[in-house]
Every structure is written in structure tokens, then in C-alpha cells.
Amino acid sequence: MIHLTIDGVSVQAEEGMTILEAAKAANIRIPTLCYLKEVSNIGSCRVCVVEVDEMEKLTASCNTLVRDGMSVRTKTDKVVRSRRMALDLILSHHNLVCFSCPSNGVCELQEVCHECGITESSYQSVRSPGIEVPAVEDNPFLGYRPDLCIHCQRCINTCANVSGCNAIKLTSRGIFRTIETPFGKNWKQTECESCGNCAEACPTGAIYKKEAKTYRSWEIQRVRTTCPHCAVGCQYDLLVKNNKLVGAQGVDGPSNGGRLCVKGRFGSYKFVMSDDRLTDPLIKDRATGKFRKASWDEALDLVASKFMALKRQYGADSLAGFACSRSTNEDIYMVQKMVRTCFGTNNTDNCARVCHSASVEGLAKTLGSGAMTNPIYDITHDVEAILLIGSNPEEAHPVVGMQIREAVRKGAKLIVVDPRDIGLTRQADIHLKLRPGTNIAFANGMCHIFIKEGLIDEKFIAERTEGFQALKKIVKDYTPERVAKICNIDPDDLRAAARIYATAKTAPIIYCLGVTEHSTGTEGVMSMSNMAMMVGKLGRKGCGVNPLRGQNNVQGACDMGASPTQYPGYQPVTNPEIRAKFEKAWGVPLPSEVGLHATDVFPAAIRGEIKGLYICGEDPVVTDPDTHHVIKALSALDFLVVQELFMTETALLADVVLPGRSYAEKDGTFTNTERRVQRVRKAVTLPGNSRLDTDILCDLMRRMGYNQPNLSAAEIFNEMASLTPSFYGISYERLENEPTKSLQWPCTDKYHSGTSIMHTGKFTRGLGLFYPTVYTPAQELPDKEYPLMLTTGRILYHYNTRAMTGKTEGLMEIAGHSFIEINTKDAEHLGIRQGERITVSSRRGSITSEARISDKTNPGECWMPFHFPDGDCNWLTNAALDQFARIPEYKVCACRIEKLPEEQAYDKKGKYVTQKMIADQWHKKMNKSVQKMMRR
Length: 936
Ligand code: FES
What we know:
The structure is a single chain. The chain is α/β, with parallel strands linked by helices and 936 residues long. Among the domains are: 282-354 and 553-673 and 688-723, Rossmann fold; 357-547, 3-Layer(aba) Sandwich (Dimethylsulfoxide Reductase, domain 2), CATH 3.40.228; 788-931, Barwin-like endoglucanases (Beta Barrel), CATH 2.40.40.20. Helix content is 31%, strand content 18%. The longest helix is centred in the last third of the chain and has 21 residues, at 915-935. It starts with a strand and ends with a helix.
């Protein structure tokens, strides 16, 4: 510790602290402007100057380190004079238009000037008083007013160090320097992601969120909640004015550290107040296909009587109910409880089935628990290397992407394993651009190299694992050369990747849907565990196997028992003791057989075995593979009920539609990808006849003959926790009192502090299991008729079906329609131009989309986002299922691309050819290389 005095007070500080930090810890205020904690301490504004004995000149406290015996004075005449002078100079550049400035009331310059007694500049202003300089406002969300800028560079450092974009620059120097923001006409060509973290960092109103013009700081209430998009679980305040949501402001949550992405900041509240929201229960007349408004009594009576009639006629297992991974834990718990107690079946599931069910199965089999092993902060800070596989976090989990960029900036090595050039490949040390569907070959190749080069952790393997010898035998054949051929990568790159990962002291595996959404997805996940266990990188800091779960509460949906095989907390429905516990608590006999997975419910409906289906908040017509097949299944049902916010494609097929409420209209909890339970809080009450989703479910349960009183969110959580050992210690009271306002399960009693890193000392299953994974190709490979390989994914500006993000005009303005990325060579062969409309077909359907030509994908491969109805790739994708998790193979299917028919076309020599002739010629050529690849 270092001893110093500040204003005569004896202060202790840690070595490496600045004077400003030491003063703050001792409750001594020093005003600042350009300083931003952990982000920017360039010392340019000189507002924080202090006097230090033995230092001739005043020094900036924000970047001067404490020294033993130092004597600091923060309020001497010299200091105050200098501070006032600095502010005087700053104000000479700043346009004092406080009345019209959206930052009025929260402006730090205003606050510091007030504190120092400055009201205007004594210098001749470089600005014409009161004349506003035109703002730069071409970005849909953000604007910049040069006349309010004080050149503190907090925005530059935030963009570079917090968001990791480097999109804001300083041009010129001295009095002529200007900040160049990427909000002008060509902003789309810049690195700007419109995250708005710069606007939050701006101490004045120079960089601002356009929406901030609609409110004043003193008019709004703040409601702390959790973002409803991806599973990072960012914490922010919803800003409420007169019972209307007007914005969102990031706060220092454990997984986001104050950051937000464009979806969280700008796409998380407009959909709540959208005019498209359903407001009344709707009943369809099957004869006309038209919906009519109904009262809640009529609608719920109809739903209850129809389901009970089907149960009587066809048996309990003719019914099924899906919960929603976007809704709260409490909603999900009640859906599965309704299905089990009222329908009397285990036919319940959630959309993890089609995204990360392979992680749940694969990690449970190998490690004993199907969840991310380490927290986000841990795997993105102070790590030596990151092995990123089948994951594009900059777009799908942007706040994790920002933290990975930060890790790389600070020196972490990055290995990207992905069939496509994602943004992070630009920063990667190695990019293994492998062929889609070959992850297991890649992982086995890595294990081969670990063994061959003596990189394995023998002690860890001997003491903590089983099954090593069986895997060793298998990976013997996966030489780098053979793997390179299967994966279409360089064998030396594979060797280099294996060495980096194995020799780094800390190196997490981070993966996503590129690993799970395959017909061998579960084995793909188990091969991730194999790699980590072989080099002893589990159960400790900065390591682990870390699936980035997709939707905001998909972790919670699995935790809450929306599963055909498990009650809440992954307790098997087939275990008689556990079943007896739930029967006692719920007061009814429960089915002993496992139910159908969601992906098996659709074929069962087509076969006539499933007659009635309750879908709470999911839209499988858009999200599930092979849309024809899903529509056929839903149309075959005797009765379909959808509980929703909007009239989705699935809701259109329903017999009854029940209007629920969004995350901003209710209390509850979400569980993020790192097993962290966080609160969701009610911010607004909207007009209309929608009801709380849990009230709808409880009312319905009573009408089906089960005595379920309406319960508050906290009461439902308590009921769930009392039946779920890994949640025994979590309650709303504890969440409120925890410093991070969150707890990570397992949290087994009320004194347990939650589990940050899993499998320390011992795996949940005892010994970690090496699973003998063998590479098998994807189920549908390109052939003569469909010569291209199609893979799918997310983009930054939308989330899944776009039901929420599509209601924000700015997001639609940036990314509003479907496209397909085609390799330059393929486009050339097909005669397809940039931006041209084309047809994409697979064995299951045909869509049109816009061609985006680049080398992001390899020749013979193409990629589509799955958000857009004007070319929804799920008409094409393959519903081939994984044998363990029943997850579909979204990531690989064969397709064919053709130009849209034209009257005539000419080849390069001017010879008349039809578009079909060009396409056939190219398909023939492609087919040869595909055949060659398949022979390997
Ligand atoms: Fe220290 Fe600006 S806050 S120099």
C-alpha cells in the first residue's frame, strides 16, 4: 500500500492507482471532463489538475500515479484558477445553446462549470452566439454537433477501447482539430455499428442519440432491466416518459460492463409500443379462415374445452405445448407445468431444440452439466488465446464481440474456425476457413496434434477424466494432412492453431450455432469437450467450453424444464423419486414416459398422432427448417393455439390467438448464457386487453380443471426454486441484495454465492468423459442438381424472426431485406451481378433474394441470414435431425442458384444463351469438384 495525504487527509492507495482514483476512494471530489474510468485518461482538458509537493507545475490527477509520501492539494487558489481557466477556454469553443440541447440537465460540462462558478467564456467565442452549426445526422440513430464538441476524445477512446470499432477519429491538431464521427452520408461504408456507446460517453450533447430530443432528463423514470435480444444479458435502464418507452441506457452489468449494441440500445423498446401489437383474443372461423375478436372468457373456455376433448378422445400424448425462449423464466415454468399437469404429457419443449439442444446434451454427457462453463468476463479478459469456433459474436452476441476485440487489442491470440470471413477474422492470428459440417474432423485433428506433439495434460487426463484411450485410438487417423483435405484447410495452420491453444496458459473455447446446428451437432459439442479436457483447460479461470446461447432466455427455457425429458433444473422425468417430488408439489399424477422433442412433434402431427398444440411465443413457421413441412404439420392439427405479441406467420395458422405481454410490461427473470439469473422489471402498462402471460396460463389451467391460483412472478420463481436444487439459493430478495444484482446457478442454498466457474476440482458428472467422436459428412451434400452448399446465420441488426427488431425503423433502414452471399468465382460462372435478384432453390423449396458477391465464403459455398420474409432461407434448409438432441442441420444443405428468368442473354462471345444454359454449364463444372471432394 502507498501512503499519501490529499488535502491534509491521510490516504492509503494501491500501487498503480492514480491520484484521482485515490481521492475518489477517500471520498474527495476532483472534477473531471475528459477522463472516463478504464477508458480514457489522456489528460487533455486539465480540469482535474492538482498541486503536488515537489512538482513545479500543476498535474492532471487522472493520469498521475500515486507515490509514497506524496502530498496532494486539490482546492488551492492556484488549482482553482487553473481549473477555471481551462473551463473558460473550453467554453470559448462550446456553443451555449443549453435550452435546445438534449443533454441539458445531464451535461457534465454544465455540471463542472456550475461547480467552478463559470457561466460563460471571458474570451471571444469562436462561435456566433446562439447560431447552431448543422448537425451530422445521416445515421438513423446518432448525430453529431461539432459546435458542442469539447474535443475530450472520450468518444474516440470509447469507440476504440470499449466497442472496439475505431470508427471515430481525430483530425488535425491544436485549435483546428475536429472529431470525425461516422454519421455522415457515407456512414454505412465506415466501421460504425451504431451501438451508441460513444453517445453515452460524450460529456456534452455533441454526440447524441436522436431519440434524446423527445425527452428531457428530468421528465423520465428509469427502470433497470435485462435486454430481450441475445443471451449476453446486458443490463440497461429503460427510459420511461408518461408511460411510454423513449430509450434505453446501458449500465454496468456483470456481462456488459456498461456496453450495449445497436439492438439493445435502439431496438429494444419500439416494438413494445408498436401498433402491430395484438390487443384482444382472436378466434378463427375455420370455414372462412377469418379471425374475430373474442372476450377472454370465450377464448379461454374454447381453448380449455378443445384441449380436454382432444385428450379424452386421443389421449394425453396427442397434445403438446412449446414454451418461448424469449419470455421470462416464470412464463416458461408455467407453460411446462400446464403441459404436464393439465395436458398430462411430457410433450413440451422450447426453441433451444433448434439452436443449442446439442450443447445441453453434449456438455451434459461429457461434463455433467449442459451449460457454459465460465463467465463472459472471465473468457474475454486476461486470456492468452481464444479459440472461436462456429461463432460470429460481433453480429450474434455483439457485446461479447466487443470484449473479444478488446482481448485481442490487449494481446490475446485469436483463432477463428469458421467457413466464412466473419469480422473477427481480420483480427485473427489464424483463420481456419473450414468446409461447413467438418467440425468433428477439425477437433479430432487438433487432438491428434496434441497427442503427437506432447501437448496433452497427462495429469489432468489421468486424475479427472475417463475414455481417453478410446478417443486416442480414433484420433490417430486424423493426421493434419487428412483433416486438411476433409476441411479444405492448410495442415500447417491446423498445427499452429493446436500449438497456440494447447500452450496458452488461459484459452477458452467459445462456440455457437456453427457447431451445434448439424445432424452431428451433439458429437460436435462433445468434440469441443474432448479438446479442452485433453489440454486440461476446464474447471479453471480463462478457459472452459463456452457455448454462446442464442436467445435472451434460451438458457432459462432449458433450466425451467421446457423439455420433453427433464423437469426444471435438468431433473429427469423418468426418475421415480424426482417425479414423486413434483407429483407431491403439484398435486397430480405425472406421466412417466419422456415426451416428444419439438422437432419430432411436426412429423407426428403430419402422421395424425399430435392433434392439439399450444405455442407460447414461438414462430416455427419462420424459424424451423423446411417451412413447407412445418406448415403442413401445423395445418394437420385439429387445434392450434398461439400466445403472442404479434400476428406472426405461425399465429396466422392458429385457431385461437391470445395476446400476451412483452418483457417491458412484466416482472420476471432471464438467465443469460453464463447461467446468470437477472431481473426483468415492469416499466409500462399499455392499453388494450392483453394479459400477463402467467395469468393467461393460470386461468387456462383452472378452466382445464387444475387448481392453479394466479401467482406473482416472485411466487412462481419461489415455487420453481423450491423444487430445483441448483436454484435452491436464488430468490428475488437475494437478486436485489447481491452487489451484481444477479446469481449464477448452481446456487444450492441461501448462503451459497453462486457458481462462476463450473467443474473446478471435479466435474459435475464426476469424471469428465472423452467421447469417441467420429467425423461423418453432413446429410445433404451438393450434387449435380444442387451443386452449392448453403449455410445460414445472423446479422448484427436483427434478431431471429425480426418480430421485435423489425419494428424499429432505423434497423430496417440499415438492413431491411434478404440477401445471399455468393463467392466471386461462382457468381462469375453464373453470370450474376452484384445486387441482382436471383432464385435460390433446394430440394424443399425455392426463394428469391439479392446477390451479394464477395470472397467471404469459399467457392461452392454460399451464406444467407435467416431474418427476412422476402427470402426466408428456411424454405430451403434441411430438417435432418441429430440422433441425440434432435437438432436440425440448418448449417448445411445443397442448393442451386439461378438468375431470375430474362427474355434473353448473351455469353462473353456474344453468342445467344438462355440463363438456364449458363446455370447448367456452371452446375456441371461445380459437380465435378463436388464429386472430387466427396471421394476424399
Ligand atoms: Fe484529467 Fe481531463 S479529466 S485532464
